[in-house]
Each structure stands twice: as structure tokens, then as C-alpha cells.
Amino acid sequence: MEIVYLKNVDSTHKFLLKKLSEKKLFAPIAVVSEEQNSGIGTKDREWIGYKGNLFLSFCIEKSDLPHDLPLGSVSIYYAYILKEILFKKGSKVWLKWPNDFYLHDKKIGGVLTTIKGKNIICSIGLNLKKSPNNFQIIDINIEKDELIELYFLKLKQVIFWKYIFRHYKIEFEKSRGYETTINGTKKISLGSAKLQDDGSILLENRRVYSLR
Question: Among candidates 23, 55, 18, which has minimal Cα distance to 36?
């Protein structure tokens, strides 16, 4: 996959969406920035970025996804693959439903996915070197270039959703001590949530997919 390297950008996600719409970049393509000034976090809140952290966005076509991957759970899929890489490197990172990276009880990053026509645009932010207050950094020493290389090597493999979900549903139990927000305002405990085979959850008699 071709990678575009930037020194500084407001958001790798916004940058990639813009270049795709202008037909200046085409899938498969990735964008990496040394710094990010206005990243997108949960519920469109700003994700504060510091130099040395991971700011990565990439685009592939829907036709390149595993045939059994539900579109509503693309974020879980890409997040869990990165989580496995970090875990094998010695990290205790875990994935809070549906797409936030946590270390113990502190958030260290997350995944954002947008579907535009035939394209899937996925962005990953991860605190490798520095974090804002109330957040955390990864618990291992790994450089972003090494992590990106390992990640894209892994993505070249055919990894089916069935495999990801089999492992993720065990990890999902860690999310039960947390809350999620429905309709932008209502916070509901994940304690009684029922994880479905497509990665969604049943919560108060409604099916909820990725928050992003």
C-alpha cells in the first residue's frame, strides 16, 4: 500500500476524505502524519494529538474486505487486528466496545471508520509517546514506523471476521463495567448488553452498532 507522509495536518481522516473526493488520491492508499491538530475522537469530539503518537488513515475498497465482515463492524475488525499486534509485543491494551483502545481503565486511542461509496476509510489514533490529562500512553516501547509496518503486513493476510469475533467476544466482557451513549445524550451501562455475531449489541431492546 502506498503511504503519504505529512509533517502536520488538522486530521488525517479529513485530509484523506478530501483528497479522495477531489480524485487526487485513490484506494488503496494510506496517510501518516507526524503531528495532528484537530483529530476526530468519540462522538466527533476532538482527539488531541502530540508528536510521536500514531496518526494513521487508510482507504481500501469494499470489495477488498473479507467476505464475512459486516460493514457495521469494520471499526472493531481493524481495531482488534492492531490490538493483537500490540498484545504480542507485550502490551496489556484491550479493546473497549466497539473501537476504543484502553490500558487498564484509561483510554489510549481509538478507531474511526467512514464508508463513502465503494471506499472504506479507516483512521487510527494511538498515544505512543504522550497523552492529554485523563488519558494514557501505551505500556510498551514501540515506534510508530514499526507499528505501521507490522499492521499493514498483517492486513495483507486474509483474516476473516469469524476469527476476529471468536476472540473479541471474550474480550467484550471487559466492557461491561462501562457505559455507552445512545442518541448522543443518553448514557446506558453495557452491563446487560448482548453482543451479537455481527459485532452489534442489543441494549434496551435496540440494536446498536459502532459509535463512530
Answer: 55
